[in-house]
Each structure stands twice: as C-alpha cells, then as structure tokens.
Amino acid sequence: MMDEQPESPMIPTSAQVPMPANTLAVGAAGQKLGEDKVVPRKQVVSWAMWDWATQPFNSVILTFVFASLYLVSDNFLPADIAALPITDPVKERALADLASGYGLATTIAGLLILLLAPVLGQRADASGIKKRLLLLFTAILALLQFTLFFVYADPAYFWFGAGVLALGAVVAEIAGVNYNAMLVQVSTRKTIGKVSGLGWGLGYIGGIIALVIVVALTTAEWFGLDTSNGLAFRLIAVGAGVWTIIFSLPLLFNVPEASPTKDPAARVGFFRSYVVLVKDIIELYKTPATRPTFFFLIASAVYRDGLAGVFAFGGILAAVAFGFSANEVLLFGIAANVVAGISTIIAGRIDDIVGPKAVILFALFGLVLMAILVFALADTGKTVFWVGGLILSAFVGPAQAASRSLLARVTPDGKQGEVFGLYATTGRVASFISPALWTIFIASFGATIYGVLGIGLVLLVGAVLLVFVRLPKYVRAL
C-alpha cells in the first residue's frame, strides 16, 4: 500500500506507472523493471539511507581524517624521528615509508575486491540473499570501525591499523555490490535514475555532516577531554561505526529480501563459481542483447577512475598548486561534497527524462572543459579553483549515480549481483590510470597544476568510449 505522504522535491514518491495489469517492461538485456509495481516511499528512502550510513567510512575514516591525519603521520614514527622538522630528509623518508606501507595494504585490498566481488555477487543472485549479505557486511564494517579504537598512537600499531582499514575497504565494496544490485528492487523503469541519484546524494551529504561534526569537536578541543595517544581519532572511528549501525536500520526493517532469481539446482560451489563467471562474461559479449553491458563496463572503468581522481587529487591540487591552507582545503572539501550531493539528487530526476547516458556524457564533457579552464586560469589565484573546483564537484556525483542507473537498466534479470560485482572489479582493474597520468604529466612538465590535464585526459577517453556504446532505445531516453 502506498504511503500517504506529500511529495517532496528531493525524495521520490511511491513509484506507480499506469499500464495494463500484469505487464512488465523488459529491456533489451532481458531485465525486468516493473511498470505496474508500486514501491512504497518508505522502501526507497530506507534503501537510500544505506549510502548515508556508510559514507563516513569513506569520507571521515579513509579520506579526510583517520588515514591521512592520523595513521600516516608523526603519531606512528619513532619519537626521535617524529621530533625532527618536517623538512628533515630522515623524517621525509619515514613518512614516505608510512605512506607506501598504507599503499601496499590498500593494493592488497584492491586485489581481494578484484577476486571476490563478482563471484560473491553471483552467489547472492543465485541464493536470493542480497539483503542478508548486505547487512552482514555492513555489520562487519561497523565492527572494523570499532576495532580502530585499538589502533594506539605507536609505531607498533601501524600495520594493525593499515590492515583494518584495508579490510574495511574490501568489506565496504562487497557490501556495495549487493546494495547496488538491490536498486531494481526499489525502483521502476521510470524512477530508477531518481532513486539512484537520491542514494548518491544522501551519501555525499551524510558524509559531510559527519565531517562537520568532527570539525566542531576538534574546534571545541573535545571539551577538555584528554586526547593523548590518538584518543580523538580513535573515538572518531567509533562514532563512524555507531553512525553506520544506526542509519542502516531503516533498510533492515523496511526493505524486504527479494526472491532467488535462479534455479537452486544451478547453484555451484565457490571455486566452480569462477568457471561460471568466465562463461557468463563471454556470454555477455556474445549475446547481442547484453553486449552493451559488456562495453559499458569497459568504458565506465576508465571514466570512473577519472572521477575518483577528481576527489583523490583535488586536495593536493588546492594545497600545492593554489596555496590553500589546511583549513581552506578542509572547507573546500566540505563545500565540494555538499555541491556534489545536491547536484546528484537533482540530476537523478533528469536521468529519468533524458536517459542516463546523456547525463553521464554531459557531466564528463563538462568535467573536461572545467579541467582545461582551471589549468588555463591557474595564475589568477585561489578564486578560479574555488569556482572551477565546485563546478567540477557538481558534475562528479551525477556521473556516478547515472552510471549505476544505466548499469541496472542494461543488466539481465537475475544477474544484478554478478554484474555489479564486475562493475566493482573493472573499476579496480583501471584504478591505476588516473594516478599514472597525474604523475606523468607533473613529472613531464615540472608543476603540480599539469596533473589536472592528466585527469582531464582520462575523463575524455572514458567519455569517447561511452559515446560508442550502443544502448537499447529505452535506456537512451524515456
């Protein structure tokens, strides 16, 4: 029964499209997106809240606070080296060793995601346990954030902390595979873009609210609490874990588990699943109806790495090329994510009108244009980065959300978990491209600002590849 609530411009209402009874919209890939079903608003919002629930792990733990300001810092250097000035070569090398050690841990995490994501997604499809697996891995993610409380500010705990963060990245990615695969369950063909955009948008905004709380606590100097031995950062990790649990509860209580989509007799053992996976990938390419899915996975792997590069190197660009202070970088990060969140929610509605491919291409070419302008006007000072950087941020979220929407539309019914697992995997395979071009452009021209052109080139190549992906007509526009 549809919830009797007034429509909000930011939250999709129950999805009901008038069509003859017992009809289904079947895409060219064979995916069934019900046109006659009603998805209660409570289910839509509860599903989208998972993005809100887990975003602090990415924004607070991995990006802005725990990993960058705590784990790879003086806190994990021997006392005599930590006391040296930052310009001392010995200290520079010691910090570089921490950074490379953490990089090694995250590389191993990426390999695990590469190996596990598609197979675990495939098995979730077969067993009909997407929600249960999502909740299981979400609970493990919360537990790992609690575990970070025991990463004391001592060199002896560095590898323990790096390992927990890397394992958390694996768990979060696998949980996300099942979460993305549930998108078709809480949307229809007419609302899938809006629902996907709502999730991404709430994720951005939730992460930034969590970050603002951290900034407020730091500004208040933790109200006189003794934060020695890394206690402030350890409490932040615990808070992020509590946040994850609380805001995952709506999905637990309000979104039902979907039925299995495969004959139980077709289920195979874990290692045999890899054989089935290879056959399925070949079948994706060989079958005309599903070939767009295959080529989209390739194109999206390239441009999604460019999107990741915008945020990964944005802070470095601000600090080094434009002279932002630490506080200015943090403020810019908050503003950028708020802009990305709002623009993503709005773009989700446009997605359902013009189609996700148009949204992605508009965003990608807009990103390329702004990257060129930021580079060309770099000598004019900080203002160009504030304006250009925020416009860049406004394009990133819509491209990410529309990519999830597009993949859900072209994925065969019963393959959502497996294909979104491949989506995670292909993203990992291509994750070296942006860092490599960023490094090559800077090394070749001798200035950090040239890294912008490297990221822009990745986005441009991904956009061109997407142009040549021939999608079913119903995906192009509705």
Describe this structure in words.
By secondary structure, this protein is an all-alpha fold. The chain has one domain: MFS general substrate transporter like domains (Growth Hormone, Chain: A, Up-down Bundle), CATH 1.20.1250. Helices cover 71% and strands 1% of the residues. The chain contains 17 helices and two strands. The protein has helices spanning 41-64, 66-71, 79-82, 89-127, 130-147, 158-181, 192-219, 231-254, 272-286, 291-321, 326-354, 356-376, 382-410, 416-429, 433-445, 451-467, 473-476; strands at residues 25-26, 32-33. It has a two-stranded antiparallel sheet. Strand 1 and strand 2 (32-33) form a beta hairpin. It is globular. It starts with 24 loop residues before the first strand and ends with a helix. The model is unreliable at 1-34 (pLDDT under 50).
In short:
The protein is mainly alpha-helical and 478 residues long. Helices cover 71% and strands 1% of the residues.
**Arithmetic mean pLDDT:** 81
Please provide the count of β strands.
2
The biggest sheet amounts to: 2 strands, antiparallel
Widest sheet: strand order? Answer: 1-2
Calculate Rg over CA atoms: 22 Å
Terminal CA distance reads 26 Å
**Secondary structure category:** mainly alpha
**Number of spatially distinct domains:** 1
User: What is the H/E string?
Assistant: EEHHHHHHHHHHHHHHHHH
Number of helices: 17
CATH superfamily (homologous) name: MFS general substrate transporter like domains
In percent, how helical is the residue content? over 70%
CATH class: Mainly Alpha
Global morphology:
globular
Q: In terms of per-residue confidence, which ranges show pLDDT below 50 for 5 or more consecutive residues?
A: 1-34
CATH architecture: Up-down Bundle
